Amino acid sequence: NNPYVHDDELNWFLWDKLAQNMDMFDFVSSLIAFRKKHPELKQTRFLEDQDVSWHGQRLDQPNWEDQSRLVAYVLNAALPLYVAFNAQKDTVHLELPSGSWQMLVN
Predict the structure, then answer these.
(1) pTM for this one?
(2) Which of 18, 50, 63, 98 is the most buried (most CB within 10 A)?
(3) What parts of the chain have a pLDDT lower than 70?
(4) What is the pLDDT of residue 17?
(5) Residue-wise burial string across 62-93, b where 16 or more C-beta atoms lie within 10 A, e elsewhere
């Protein structure tokens, strides 16, 4: 479940342990900076069909079944953004849309 509403040790960042957790701090800081630089990640309205294209392991073939542990999509913006979430324990090979893509987070 989403722990966002928990104001307890589940979500607290231990600032006195920052030096020990610098890798995580740097990682999260870079994600925040990336989001701030990309307006397509700051939607103030619900996405419409023209804003997003859904995929699975193959392009345009999302798997909406309950047992599926993969979702992929492209945010159609000035700078298209391909996003894939794989919750399976095994590596999944994805068919990417044409173009030049750079991995930002793995």
Answers:
(1) 0.77
(2) 63
(3) 1
(4) 92
(5) bbeeeeeebbbbbbeeeeebbebeeeeeeeee
